[in-house]
Amino acid sequence: MLKQKTIAFLGAGSMAEAMISGMIQTEKAPADQIIVTNKCNHERLNTIENKYGVRTVPLAELPHAEIDYFILAMKPKGAEETLAAIKDIISVDQVVISVLAGISTSYMEERLNVGQEVIRVMPNTSSMIQESATAMSPGNHTNENNVNNVKKLLECMGKVYIIDEDQMDIFTGLAGSGPAYFYYLMEQMENIGKVSGMDGEQARNIAAQTLYGAAKMIIERQESPADLRKKVTSPNGTTAAGLEALEKYHGGEAISQAVSHAANRSKEISKELDRVLVTS
């Protein structure tokens, strides 16, 4: 648990709730160390307060002096206004953490005080069950102690990886969008199971357990996917036949293109967002 650290969520949407739930469940931070605010949805704040026992306040009443970490969790289009609202009430050693897609550390640094400590974070949807692959990139002025403390805090969502910010787009292609690729794969496995006469729910559970087991083998055995694939592939066996079909129908290329296209779209969205925020 983070001792004597107070965390403020600026925004109370689904990602904020996932993080709040994770922090409390994993005891990374107790409810009385968490403050939540948003622009105008008081009903949402009441729901969060009643469900988790955290403090909720209007943005204008945020007790800024006692806060260690400000987590930006509103919609990206609200970032400019929120950064302007907190600029004059925070000190440079209070850490501003963004979980907003497309909001770079340089964007935050340019709109806050000189020397402001900032960190950019990208979780994925598995944060809801504390199994996210989350990336974080510190800004130019963020000290190592705060980087380590924030990393421990974010582990309430799953595994955390510190990466260079210029790798955020490829991370998006791999992990931000990655769960959808596996859901798509399981859709196809479920469908072929049903076509072959198997109960649909049973086929889905079999596919999910198979994927879960394969992922766990990689994590726990620390072996490469290529090595594990070779170990389960007997010459002229069933697995070899399946892999031959994947190669014939360009399954590997499809996966590579999916990651590449998602990464490229991430770059485009960041540029589009920059234009919108600059002209708004």
Layout of secondary structure:
Blueprint lengths: L6 E4 L3 H12 L8 E4 L4 H11 L2 E2 L12 E4 L6 H9 L7 E4 L6 H7 L6 E5 L9 E7 L5 H11 L3 E5 L5 H9 L1 H18 L4 H22 L3 H7 L6 H11 L2 H29 L1
Parallel strand pairs: 1-2, 1-4, 2-3, 4-5, 5-6, 7-8
Antiparallel strand pairs: 6-7
Helix pairs in contact: 6-11, 7-8
Structure characteristics:
280 residues; Rossmann fold; ProC C-terminal domain-like fold; 2 domains; 8-stranded mixed β-sheet; elongated
Short description:
The protein has 280 residues and is of the alpha/beta class. It is built from 11 helices and 8 strands. The protein has an 8-stranded mixed sheet, sandwiched between helices.
Structure description:
By secondary structure, the chain is α/β, with parallel strands linked by helices. It folds into two domains: 7-164, NAD(P)-binding Rossmann-like Domain (Rossmann fold, 3-Layer(aba) Sandwich); 176-262, ProC C-terminal domain-like (ProC C-terminal domain-like fold, Orthogonal Bundle). The protein is 52% helix and 12% strand. It is built from eleven helices and eight strands. It has helices at 14-25, 42-52, 79-87, 105-111, 144-154, 168-176, 178-195, 200-221, 225-231, 238-248, 251-279, and strands spanning 7-10, 34-37, 55-56, 69-72, 95-98, 118-122, 132-138, 158-162. It has an eight-stranded mixed sheet, with helices on both faces. β7 (132-138), α5 (144-154) and β8 form a beta-alpha-beta unit. α6 (168-176) crosses α11 and α7 (178-195) crosses α8 (200-221). The longest helix is centred in the last third of the chain and has 29 residues, at 251-279. The chain is elongated.
